[in-house]
Amino acid sequence: MLEEQSVKLDSAIFTFTQDGDCLDEIDHYQTLTIELASDLGIDNTDGAFIILKTERWAINDLSDLEVLINRCKQVTKKTMR
User: Fold this and answer.
1) Which one has a higher pLDDT value, 5 or 2?
2) Who's near 53: CB < 8 A, 6+ residues apart?
3) HSE of 69 in the Cβ direction (CA atoms, 13 Å)?
4) Which residues contact 81 (CB under 8 A, 6 or more apart)?
5) DSSP code of 6?
6) pTM
7) What gap in Å lies between CA 73 and CA 39, rounded to an integer?
8) pLDDT tens for residues 7-65?
């Protein structure tokens, strides 16, 4: 049986989707990828860098980004740098 201490989280990738905004003329939906990465692995350091990748992701308020980051934190249960 695997022991929890022997398994380490190295990195994580989250992909979020949403309907396109009213100014988006091409896509019917938008995709945002949030990568969590650390040079020594997430579990071996104090956390991870947050890397955002998207062609287009519209938000109404900055708190919308906080919701996405908090969702990632729930999964990793690590502080992100």
Assistant:
1) 5
2) 32, 33, 34, 35
3) 13
4) 46, 47, 48, 49, 50
5) G
6) 0.76
7) 18
8) 888 888 999 999 988 887 776 899 999 998 988 988 888 878 889 999 999 999 999 98
